Amino acid sequence: MPHSTSTAATPMKPFSRSLQRDLNAAVDDDDGKQHSADDGDGKQNTERGLRRPSRLFYLALLYTVFWALVFYHHFSTSSQQSGSAEVAAPTVLQLKPSAFFSAYRFFRRDPCAGRYVYTYDLPPRFNADLVRQCNRVSISSHVCKDVSHDGFGPPITGGGEGGSLPERGAYDTDQFMLSIIFHARMRRYECLTADPAAAAVVYIPFYAGLDAAMHLDNKDLAARDALSRDLMDWLAQRPEWRAMGGRDHLLVSGRGTWDFLRSPDSTGWGNTLMTYDLAIRNATFLSTDASPRHGNDFAVPFPSHFHPSSDAEVTDWQDRMRRLDRAWLWCFAGWPRAHGVGMGPERAQIIEQCGKSSRCSLLGKLNNYVPMRLLESAKFCMQPRGDGYTRKSTFDSILAGCIPVFFHPVSAYLQYTWHLPRDYRTYSVFIPHGDVVGRNVSIEEVLRRIPSEKVAQMRERVIQLIPTVMYRHPAAKGLTFKDAFDVALDRVLHRVAKRRRAAAEGREYVDSVDGRDSWKYDRMLEDGQNKIGPHEFDQYL
Question: The pTM is what?
Fold first, then answer.
């Protein structure tokens, strides 16, 4: 029966009519010919190819899904907020700006993707109890003062003695408080997660440095090792540890690696945290003095005295260091050591040469007993080895805008590869230890030969490094620079990500080895080389 024409069909909306026309449009068959939806007599054309949705169809579908998500979020939020009302108001479709922003958040990339950190809630015996028992540290009577203010120690007001520190953000910080400082920052880290399965890195907030300090002079080896072994037994029971065998775990020791490397069958220095159970070697250790012969520990800067809370505090301090009139060519902020100790002859030569020079200053010389004030008054600051290969004064001198002078590559160049430039010549001077001790090379003559333009460039590079080697205040917000914590965590995340990719491909990622070439894995392979080879520092190791 023919269709009636007496009743007009309801007109379609332009968008719907366009969509329907497109769905009924001609399609190509395998021969490339086009056929309409019917043959003109109302009969279906059997040669027609299979109809396929067009791009416009998919656009309409996406459009519908998008608004469905917006409406769903809007109404679900509204119903939750009004759930406690006794009488519900009539539902009115009223889109608020929050609906649009929520939809935006739904589609935007997660800023914490690949950066989530899960922190163990350790029993207090591994951290908080150690802080409360600070008076048990026999090697220092000031530890209970040092652990205050999240490990920063007491605030220093008025710029400190001689006005050598900033007016704000200065603290009397002890060099061994890094584990507490790091934990304080991690508690406020913007990408923490309560789901270990979503974490890129698992953080172990064990105050290993405090534990070691309490037992360094204890002849009872079992007591010296007790808490470290307790930690390993605790970790071994955790599913988070077993998931990757600890390869995604991070621990900040707060002291030099040497304090944790005693062999279980030895009676020597330190405890067995890094040797009792070799599984711990899968984790990443951060220390202030790493071993060039071990592949899982990485050096991070000693904490200095400035912990800023704003970008302005940092830039103001940098500008101040640029304007300083430096009266001395070089200086040394340190004291002699016994000649029988490895760094003793090195220091003795530095002190002797400086004492005879009119262009060098020492602590105590001309009644100058303020280390930071001394560092700020010189162009070059001597950095011989300290208790270990490294020393806190390296970072005090950078904070003071003073160019560091090293006498052994392990004092900085093989240690702080995450925080200091690869090209050590851009920010420091290297005078080999043997030249000073064995050949009586004049330190001052080496420094005087450096052109003034080069000195200015080096000092500017040092001043630019200041934000990178300091630890900002943990409560600070809105800062744009990356401090030592940020730099270290970025590198740990990068290291673990490579391990995860390898595990997903069913292979073990070898990113470190122990032995004489261990230090090269981080320094040489990260520079783009494909294999370990000879290096200019081989002769010093």
Answer: 0.79
